[in-house]
Design goal:
It contains 5 helices and 12 strands. By secondary structure, it is α+β, with helices and mostly antiparallel strands.
Length: 180
Amino acid sequence: MGITQKILPHYTYEDYKIWEGKWELIDGFPIAMSLSPVPKHQLAAASLIIEIGVALKKCNNCRIYDAIDYLIKEDTVVQPDIMVLCSKPTKKFIDFTPSLVAEILSPSTALRDRNTKFELYQNEGIKYYLIVDADAKTIEIYQLLNNSYTLVNEIAAECFEFIFEGECRANVNLADVWKE
């Protein structure tokens, strides 16, 4: 055991539940989240939720959600900006694999979203991972193929069809996310 492991505490979901403010917990390490996302971040998230939500209207199983706690394991809890769930949540958090997660980049989270969370979501078997850059007005769509994320599209102005569980499909005009 290295010296860092000896002196740093290891937190769990039980600790996390009583913390004030917005946090994530990855492998027992707490990460403070910014309390108020900037308007550009919020607008991109809201627009993406609307576009995917409308496309999912005909699907009986899958729904889109704003940030909810995603308990991956006892010492790892994250709050993706957006999730598509094809099972109904029955708790205050989810403890099953979403079909899609999206993270809206910000200067304080971009490195973690592109690396730590990328690997975490890939290892969890999440079918689609969207990295949204509100400044560049792009959406990188990664799809899990052969247990590894593959960039299937980097969209600034086009449609993409997501295929979820149970024949649920969502043809989303992602260009509309950037309309003002």
